[in-house]
Amino acid sequence: RVVILDFGSQYGHLIARRVRELGVYSVVLPHHAPLAAILRHRPRGVILSGGPASVYEPGAPQCDPELWQAGVPVLGICYGMQLMVHQLGGRVVPAARREYGPATLHVDEPGRLLAGLGARVDVWMSHADRVEVLPPGFTVLAHTADAPYAVIEGGDGRWLGVQFHPEVAHTPRGRDILANFLFRVCGCRGGWSMADFVERAVSALRRRLDGARALCALSGGVDSAVAAALVHRAIGSRLVAVFVDTGLLREGEVEEVRSTFSGLGMDLRVVDARDRFLDALAGLVDPEAKRKAVGETFIRVFEEQARRLAAELGPIPYLVQGTTYPDVIESGGGAAATIKSHHNVGGLPPDLDFELVEPLRDLFKDEVREVGRRLGLPTALIERHPFPGPGLAIRTLGAVTPERLRRLRACDRIVREEIRRAGLEGSVWQAFAVLTGARTVGVMGDRRTYGEAVAVRVVASDDGMTADWVRLPHEVLDRIARRLVNEVEGVNRVVYDITSKPPATIEWE
Ligand code: XMP
After folding, report:
1. pLDDT tens digits, one per residue of 69-93
2. pTM of the full predicted structure?
3. Which of 105, 356, 404, 473 sits 20 to 30 Å CA-CA off 183?
């Protein structure tokens, strides 16, 4: 396997991806990980990612300088290469001309890294600093018109640096360059697959949770379900799963979770806390206040349940969470700038004394899904759209009442049914209804109505960070609109949300 040190590059996660696509398992660690933490993974190679900083600035992110004595091959990408140069005695300076976009690499001496690529290679550059003086013992493998040191090699061929980004699609032969590093320089064998992941994760979990009990909170979503199924595969009935019915879930969700996990033979406790959530939300209209109320109520309910279970079963030292790699990045756990912190239901109760078990921490969404498939979870669950922790509460603009929740739940079912019927479920990120709280005048039969406008939101996205509205066929929009007005009491107008993210967000609150 390979360790990737993350210096805050927007492409950091892509490197991990590409390496895994080449059949080599990769783990992303923060840049400041001490050498011991790196070596614990027994890496055959280390990759230093790009990053927004300049190595010569005070406080610029560094890696453990001991790395250079560890005898492990290192590939530095962009900032990673500059750091290599900086730490090994060369010099990096601001570039007179910044290089952004496509460039042509002229190969002077292919070495192992550029073997088989020919004399000219199209690459993608994005940097404002450049290497001015190479460290002792380094040589140039390739240059571009603007960068005399575009690919460098040192340390008897173990240390390699590329100024461009081999991980992005705009570097067409990037995959071959990474493959050369992994197979020719590091001597990786490849052949890693998700099946290996499951096998290794299960045996690691067995070792770690040896004889002990673990608790997990299911949210109805993919991540917590897969994490629970994985831990269940490892420790069986020593895992207890709690599912809190907040009353803010979609239609049929509670039954679905119950039948899936009881079917897997899991010890599942469904807690009916619907009234408590309604009480906590009573009178609240501010979105943040609602999120907070839901989050806090969840924690309280979960805490009570944990105490009750400990009294019944004995100590439960571990808490399983479905944290995935994007969560780690998003919450600022990686080096990339903190983008947003979600008040995640299913999050860790802060004053409960658990040791966290996060078996999916290194995985991307589609990898999590693949693990779920291998563990035999139903397709409907695995392909489920994301659903926010605060649930329907943040899609019911204004006051949350049982009646409005019923209304929204009916609208949500219709939207999802029609998207599925149109065969679009797999190609959209989310499709849902929002009760806008706007009252509008309509006419039905011969009577004037004064009902509520419902918004339909259907977006495409890769990761939820940016999104675009989906150009639904007019027939589909028409069917949705007609059904909403005809079938759901109190709805007399339907609008389609055509804003992208940014500037809007996906959810309305
Ligand atoms: P926004 O509305 O921020 O949503 O564009 C981005 C993605 O995150 C989901 N989301 C949440 N998920 N807890 C969650 O677990 C939350 O509080 C929350 N808020 C938004 C949203 O559904 C979308 O997929």
Report:
1. 999 999 999 999 999 999 999 999 9
2. 0.78
3. 105
In 7-163, DSSP assigns E strands to: 26-30, 45-48, 74-77, 91-107, 120-133, 139-143, 151-154, 159-162
Exactly one of 167, 330, 370, 418 is catalytic; name it: 167
Helix (H/G/I), strand (E/B), else coil: 494: strand
CATH 3.30.1330.30 applies to domain 396-496: no
Classify strands 139-143 and 26-30 as parallel, antiparallel or unpaired: unpaired
Q: Domain 2-185 in CATH: superfamily?
A: Class I glutamine amidotransferase (GATase) domain (3.40.50.880)
User: What is the identity of the amino acid at 148?
Assistant: P
Q: Would you say the ipTM is above 0.90? A: yes
Specify the 3-state DSSP secondary structure of 54: coil
Render the burial of 390-425: b for 16+ CB within 10 Å, e for the rest. bbbbbbbbeebeeebbebbbbbbbbbbebbeebebb
CA of 388 to the centre of ligand 1 (A): 5
Residue ranges at the known binding site = 219-225
Q: Which CATH number is associated with domain 194-382?
A: 3.40.50.620
Mark whether 165 is an active-site residue: yes
Neighbouring CB atoms inside 10 A of 269's CB total 16
Choosing from 86, 143, 165, 232, the catalytic residue is 165
* 428-456 per-position pLDDT tens digit: 999 999 999 999 999 988 899 999 999 99
Q: Binding site residues for ATP, as ranges?
A: 219-225
Pairwise CA distance, residues 402 & 404, whole Å: 6
Of residues 212, 198, 242, the one with CA closest to residue 377: 198
Domain limits of the chain?
Answer: 2-185, 194-382, 396-496
Task: Please indicate whether the domains covering 2-185 and 194-382 agree at the CATH topology level.
Answer: yes
Cα separation of 228 and 215, whole Å?
A: 9
Helix (H) or strand (E) holding 384: none
